[in-house]
Amino acid sequence: MPSFTDADQRGIARRGWTGQNRSPYTDGVGETATVSLTRAELDAATRLVHRTLPSTPAYRWPLLAAELGVEVWVKHENHLPVGAFKVRGGLVYVDRLLHRRPSVRGLISATTGNHGQSLAFAGRAAGLPVHIVVPLGNSPDKNAAMRALGAEVIEHGHDYQVAREHAASLAADDPRLEIVPSFHPDLVLGVATYARELFDTVAQLDTVYVPIGMGSGCCGLIAVRDLLGVPTEIVGVVSERADATARSFAAGEVVVTDSADTFIDGVATRSPDPEAIRRIVAGAARIVTISEDEAAQAMRLHFRTTHNAPEPAGSLALAGLLKEANRAQHKRVALIQTGGNIDSTTFATVLEGRTPTPPSPLIRS
Question: CATH number of the domain at 45-85+185-357, out of 3.40.50.1100, 3.90.1440.10, 3.90.640.10, 3.80.30.20?
């Protein structure tokens, strides 16, 4: 597996990206290293990612532009081998982990799908076994995809947060397993490579809309925007039924909610990462909340105008733009289609003009 050079590693260490492994599941502000990057770090990550993955296209789709009356570009992270952007972060995280701790013998984490596929892909390339905890009722297609990549999939709990806590418990009981958080500077560094590709491809962007789950994609965009010194607004989009990030943004600190009961599984977060919130508060323009019906509508429009099938979270950037259509007039806008991993049952429901419901709490209990 290609890796950072020793010089790359030393440069990143000076920026505070390395050090002792911290608990990824604490709610204490300041427990995660600051998310920032230099040109050298971004160059190193880009070299690493592009040795395994192609750049993804950013297209202007005429039908979509005609529907919205806006110059709009779609960054197609759904074109990557695992169908989502997070594989970039997985490659960088695993590479840097093995440089820090070559004795690591296995990985464990929690996910609703794309983070798990990312780690399974990177772990297989590095020869590491990967264990992934998912909530009960998780997408069967995503579970199957993770297993096909060699991961052991463990179903536990009624939502992502419970699965996350169970993964931490399993790691505490097995010293062979390295817990991998859903938000970490190395993950952000990896996914920042798509932001770099976007800004290299499309000049003078006014606004970028991006879904927010745990925040790596949004933070990567903010970091690259700031590195390049461009005035582009970064607008995060979340589900109104999983609005912990929106509440945290408004409060300026982490706000934990009791539930994240949404069919938009990729953003079903109720306990945000403190450093992600700090960075989003500092660098995002605003957070837009989207209803279940608005997400389903955006999925249908996305498919009809681009013939790319979005997973529910992959439609949220478009849903955010639709909600702010008047605000976006006469601007150059980009949307991040973060992924296309949608199961056939959910997609059929959407294409029939209906809105899917989340998995039943009885199924998940």
Answer: 3.40.50.1100
